[in-house]
UniProtKB/TrEMBL annotation:
It comes from Candidatus Magnetaquiglobus chichijimensis. Keywords: Glycosidase, Hydrolase. It holds the Pfam family Glyco_hydro_3. This is beta-N-acetylhexosaminidase. It catalyses: Hydrolysis of terminal non-reducing N-acetyl-D-hexosamine residues in N-acetyl-beta-D-hexosaminides.
Length: 371
């Protein structure tokens, strides 16, 4: 089997099983994304898992969601990061301190991920918080106005990019105004492209040059593509992002198993690739789901123009190559005086305790939540 370069998968637990090892060696996906279920046994086991994944054929990149606040897969004993909106509140009263702390928080996040060998972070969130919307975004947003999101997310990203870990902005073209949770059902946002360009699209457009990857939203916009979710919308992904904006980075689907999408896993993957996604996320940890997604990818690749498919493959290889990282000395980092000082500064404005993650998967299933 040729490498499944369009595929990002998840695992069942904190150790790489024999069947997962066999799958990784046979399939050679582009990446493996980690969730709380993979990280519950402590840093030593997490490092061992990442090393084991790295030894399989193709040495896939390691992915994670480490936004801060509620959505933070890696928790104790690492930094308790404030929610993005906590920084927005601080910036309204003390913008200089907020800018400094955002830079520091981004740097801390990247330092910790790099020390563990995690090369790709599905952050920052570029959605705009909106009153009356479903709380699934809420304090995950860097502000309630696009100018706030741009300013605060850029400060965070400047610090993060210094560490050599890849950032993926999400959820294109904007999930903040959604009145429903796309983990459960398909949100409808009845706005024209002109309206989106005046509001939701601003953070993505402004930060495009700093983001090697963008993640799609499972949100339908009837005025743009007849109610098709953005993940399946060629109008948004190919015509707008690729052709009009000339975006050179990779486009990643949100998790295919989420409730906003319908149809088989094979069909979900096929439609995402045909719309313009370079990479698709299958986060259930089930081998049968992975196999179905592979079939969908291959069906789409046979349908796509040869030049477009090859361009996508080149893009994936080029963008992901620098982010295949080896685990470093995480324990040494945790003891470093400079790191500890920066961490104390950031945690001083964090919530008192880790909040419940609204996106965390439970027992793996075809309805497992991701973003």
């Amino acid at each position: 089997m040729k490498p499944q370069i369009h595929l990002i998968i998840a695992l069942q637990g904190p150790e790489l099983s024999e069947s997962e090892t066999t799958f990784l060696n046979r399939v050679r996906p582009a990446g493996v994304i980690l969730f709380g279920r993979n990280l519950s046994a402590g840093l030593k086991q997490t490092t061992a898992l990442i090393k084991a994944i790295g030894k399989t054929a193709g040495a896939p990149t390691i992915w994670i969601d480490q936004e801060g606040g509620r959505v933070q897969r890696l928790r104790d004993p690492l930094t308790r990061h404030p929610s993005p909106y906590q920084f927005a509140l601080l910036a309204r009263t003390d913008p200089i301190r907020a800018e400094r702390l955002l830079f520091t928080a981004g740097r801390l996040c990247g330092e910790e991920l790099r020390a563990l060998g995690i090369g790709v972070n599905c952050a920052p969130v570029l959605d705009i918080r909106e009153a009356g919307a479903d709380p699934v975004i809420g304090d995950r947003a860097f502000g309630a106005h696009f100018s706030e999101v741009i300013m605060n997310a850029t400060s965070w990203l400047h610090g993060f990019r210094q560490t050599g870990v890849m950032a993926i902005g999400k959820h294109f073209p904007g999930h903040g105004a959604a009145r429903a949770d796309s983990h459960l059902t398909l949100p409808i946002l009845d706005k024209s492209l002109k309206s989106l360009q005046k509001w939701e699209l601003n953070p993505f457009r402004a930060m495009l040059d700093f983001l090697p990857g963008l993640m799609t939203a499972h949100i339908a916009m009837p005025q743009i593509d007849d109610g098709v979710p953005a993940t399946w919308s060629r109008s948004l992904l190919h015509k707008l992002l690729r052709q009009k904006w000339r975006y050179p980075g990779v486009i990643v689907s949100d998790a295919l198993e989420m409730g906003a999408l319908n149809g088989s896993m094979e069909e979900r993957a096929r439609r995402a690739i045909l719309a313009g996604c370079d990479l698709v996320l299958c986060c259930t940890g089930r081998m049968e789901d992975n196999e179905a997604v592979i079939e969908g990818i291959e069906r789409a690749s046979r349908t796509l123009d040869v030049g477009e498919d090859e361009a996508s493959r080149r893009r994936i290889r080029h963008v992901l190559a620098p982010y295949r990282l080896e685990p470093g000395a995480i324990r040494r980092l945790l003891k470093d005086p400079g790191y500890r000082k920066r961490r104390a500064q950031v945690e001083a404005v964090a919530e008192e305790a880790f909040a419940v993650d609204p996106t965390a998967p439970g027992i793996p299933s075809t309805r497992t939540h991701h973003e």
